[in-house]
Amino acid sequence: MRKILILSLVTISFLSCNQQTTKKIKSSNPIEQKVDSVLNLMTLEEKIGQMNQYNGFWDVTGPVPSAGDAAKKYEHLKRGWVGSMLNVRGVENIRKVQKIAVEDSRLGIPLIIGFDVIHGYETQSPIPLAESASWDLEAIKKSAQMAAKEASAAGINWTFAPMVDISRDARWGRVMEGAGEDPYLGSQIGIARVKGFQGKDLSDPHTIAACAKHFTAYGFAESGKDYNTADIGLSTLYNTILPPFKSAHEAGVKTFMNSFNELNGIPATGDKFLQRDILKGEWNYEGFVVSDWGSIMEMIDHGYAENKNHAAELAANAGSDMDMESYAYVNELASLVKEGKVSEEVITDAARRILKVKFELGLFDDPYKYCNVEREKEVIGSKEIIDAALDMAKKSIVLLKNEDNILPLKKNGQKIALIGALASDKNSPLGNWRIAAKDDSAVSVFEGMKAYVGNELNYAEGATLYAGKTNFPSELVLNTTDKSKFQEAINIAKKADVVVMVLGEVGYQSGEARSRAKLDLPGLQQELLETIFKVNKNIVLVLNNGRPLTITWADENIPAIVEAWQLGSQAGNAIAQVLYGDYNPSGKLPMTFPRSVGQVPIYYNYKNTGRPGPKKEVFWSHYQDESNKPLYPFGYGLSYTSFEYKNLKTKVELGNIKISVDVTNTGILKGKEVVQLYIRDLVASVTRPVRELKGFELVEFNPSETKTVTFELTKDELGFYNNQRKFVVERGEFQIFVGGSSDTTLKNTVEYK
Ligand code: BGC
What we know:
The protein is α/β, with parallel strands linked by helices and 753 residues long. Among the domains are: 398-586, Glycoside hydrolase family 3 C-terminal domain (Rossmann fold, 3-Layer(aba) Sandwich), CATH 3.40.50; 643-752, Sandwich (Immunoglobulin-like), CATH 2.60.40.10. It has 21 helices and 25 strands. It has a six-stranded mixed beta sheet. A five-stranded parallel beta sheet has the order 4-3-2-1-10. Strands 20-19-24-25 form a four-stranded antiparallel beta sheet. The structure holds beta-D-glucopyranose. Residues 86, 116, 160, 213, 292-293, 512 line the site of beta-D-glucopyranose (BGC). The site of beta-D-glucopyranose has 7 residues, from loops.
């Protein structure tokens, strides 16, 4: 068998390299020795082959391709010129491509199989922004663990997740894929996801390699327009953008992906400062960096590379180890080495990094270890995975408003009017990045609410959302004219005790290339909401969306608002359980909601400026026509119960700041609260934000229960990077804030000496 051949080659060569006194064995780690022994057998072209990643290239169940691009890729696979494939899925298909790599190529090096397992594989959990609203690190870790379990059962062993890009701009469609605006929360969530995907042992067949992306500053695209330029200073880079990447690295993430954007004039893919100096230098990262899709080639359009040959040279020298679909490395690198423009050490280093991850995954021991048909059938869509998706969905919901306790809904004797195209939509809750999910497989809100049979439930669409196709990757065309379905909705609303309106964005309205210049309810939905409000004010607005929206009118007029994002396969059940009070919501916003688009970028950890105001005269930092305040601040979210914070105590002990606060559940229901800790460094050599999240604790309380919640801040947690890229901790006064939102006013001041 071929597998045996590889193994014996590895062993023989390991022995022979041990006999070579000149050969440098980098460490006594057996995996690194095995990697070296394989490298020893490889030609230059085979090493370059490891750096080449192809998209799934032919219907692997069909005949072998004999012409065109697919035939070329097939030929490259047989020659050992492909290190990885993406978007091949399903055990049967993956076994077939793996078999070509393992049995037909000279050395039989197995492929690493990548896929965007962003929030689940076939079963979808909530979109990452929604999960982040739970602030529940255990649940988030479990969600990634379940995604890894399902994806690995389908043959996948590498996910392009987590996306740890911080973003302060809701116009950017990819905010749905991240953890929001804050570097501390983003770091904690990134760590949880890496640990969930990779587990304790990467060779366990239920775990997969993770990928911290997109390195870097992709979330700072100017004007929120995807792929756009980022131009930022060192302070923002080091204190806001890099921390989640560094944390993911420290949590052991096996791979990084670079990004499409340029940063300060250099495309990230060709940026040596980012990849070699910071990542592989300062951080000593030993995994590999994959380019983003075609991003090596795109350096030509950026105006940075003359042609593909030049692009390959720039990217390889800058530290991009694997080429995703640019065909630049496979076609250009060998000649670049011969011309001396790229050194063979660069190639060997990249191949070493890639082979190391393959060894860690155990692919050299058994290239088919993820290809078990029985496991695939058993695990995909199993009860364990569906239950976890439901649990995560409930934890992700944020209650934004609940006047006069209109929620939870009574379970009996009520007439409920359910209105909105999204209420019966079984596709949108799956969100974007749900490639392996079956279309229309989510539980809709309508279905979820039908399970509560004590009430009369009537449904009307109200307004069709889109005039054309809403599937991937069509450009969405909004319905802005057809109001023919309004009347039916008005009719059922008039007769109802409570109206539940499900409004927002379709699943493909956020995600890659889905930037928006407006953040309102798209199409006719705002008009529909106002029309229904005229006939029945008792409205519960359920939002389904992939980003913060400017729902200022709704906040002023609608008594109850529930932020339900795109919650995945179990969305409708989760929403119904929250609406009916079977689950008490505890989510908190991971991103600020603006009042109007003109406020964007808007974020809680802004700088004070020299003219903070408010002042009587006009000369302070503000808008003439809009408040400085957000609609809902970062960290905000209500519960069906209420919490009171008292007795904030702070003291400096042994160089650390000890903080305690008494939190009481003042309501009559059991509930959970995210207790948040913020600091403000009042005077520093580089100005610091007005607030910075430094800790949080998710605590459950019985009715009337008081708990003392404690935090301890170490010296390092008070520090920051200055403009010389040096981490400094400076003495002086710090304000300490504790509360249930970033706008908490409960504070103490401590002197840190
Ligand atoms: C995205 C990446 C993704 C890759 C592979 C790109 O367009 O930016 O995040 O992992 O495609 O699907």
